[in-house]
Amino acid sequence: MSAATGTARRTWYVFRSNPLTILGLAIVTLVVFLSIFADFITPFPEHVGPIGDFGSMSAPPGGQYLFGTDTLGRDLLTRIAYAYRLALVMAVVVLIISVPVGVTVGLIAGYVGGWVDYALMRITDIFLSIPPLVLAMSIMGFLEPTLINGMLAVTVMWWPWYARLIYNVTRSEAREGYVLAAEIVGASTFHILFREILPNCWPSILTKMTIDIGFVILIASSLSFLGLGVQPPTPDLGSMVADGAKYMPDAWWLTVFPAIAILLVVLGFNLVGDGLREAFEADA
User: Fold this and answer.
1) Residue-wise pLDDT tens digits, 118-133
2) Which is the most buried residue in 45, 97, 270, 279, by most CB within 10 A?
3) What is the pLDDT of residue 163?
4) Residue 189 lies in a domain
């Protein structure tokens, strides 16, 4: 058995030993399953679009409508499943863009040092000094409230967190013997950054990415709740909570079930992220 295989097995053993981590993994698996197969497993996939069933308006949970219907008679369970798909796509796209940017900035600033370190980290600190939701709201105030613009707004506010994280890790790793050895043999800066230091940053990156998926969804839902995100009739968890709040407490399910859906997805990814952190720390 190779060293890499042994390390992976130890990491998996620690990961699955925590019941809360397994609970989080089950929640994440359910959310991803609903998102991918929503077209086939939801009872009323046609209710995603601008359609109305006025004979079933505001039907309470039960019968053929497990989560009830909204004010246009659309099945709430179906719309939540499709809203999960939209939320996960947004989270993945935001992280695909922001993580490479933030990681590259952190690596360069942490290893090169000097005025490069000062300039990059001061720019990062400026972004970090603004509350994330406020920054996203400010950006969306100048843009049309669409899915693409929402992803852009969240991406702009997300990369600095990775820059700060990798900056701290890089400054610590830059003093390790393997980096000094690479410098002695004349390795290029690119090689040292991306072939020597970056692989040792992956545990921190993967842990934060897992946790951040939930938080990206939460921020995106907050923008939609305020009317700055995805617009109707596209199903979105935040806008569903906002629309349902108008009919509380009579039609309580219009708000409660989408809110629980947000809670579950954030909780699931946080539990998995915590499990990954414990597993990586135990194997360090």
Assistant:
1) 999 999 999 888 887 8
2) 279
3) 94
4) yes
CA distance 6 to 11: 9
Single-letter code of the amino acid located at 138 = S
Residue 7 lies in a domain: no
What six digits make up the tokens of 36?
């991918």
Cβ atoms of residues 35 and 78 within 8 Å: no
Model confidence, pTM: 0.88
Number of domains in the chain: 1
Range of the domain at 183: 21-37+74-283
**What is the amino acid identity at position 133?**
L
CA distances from 226 to 103, 130, 238 (A): 31, 19, 8
* CATH number of domain containing 250: 1.10.3720.10
What Rg value do the Cα atoms of the chain yield, rounded? Answer: 22
Residue appearing with tokens 């923008």: 223
Q: Is the peptide bond before 145 cis (omega within 30 degrees of 0)?
A: no
Q: What is the mean pLDDT of the chain?
A: 88
Please name the amino acid found at residue 164.
R
Q: Can you give the pLDDT at residue 284? A: 57
Instruction: Provide the H-helix boundaries in the chain.
Output: 3-16, 19-36, 38-41, 76-112, 114-128, 132-140, 147-173, 177-184, 189-191, 202-225, 237-245, 253-283
273 φ, ψ (degrees, to nearest 5): -65, -40
The full DSSP string for 71-109 is TT--BHHHHHHHHHHHHHHHHHHHHHHHHHHHHHHHHHH
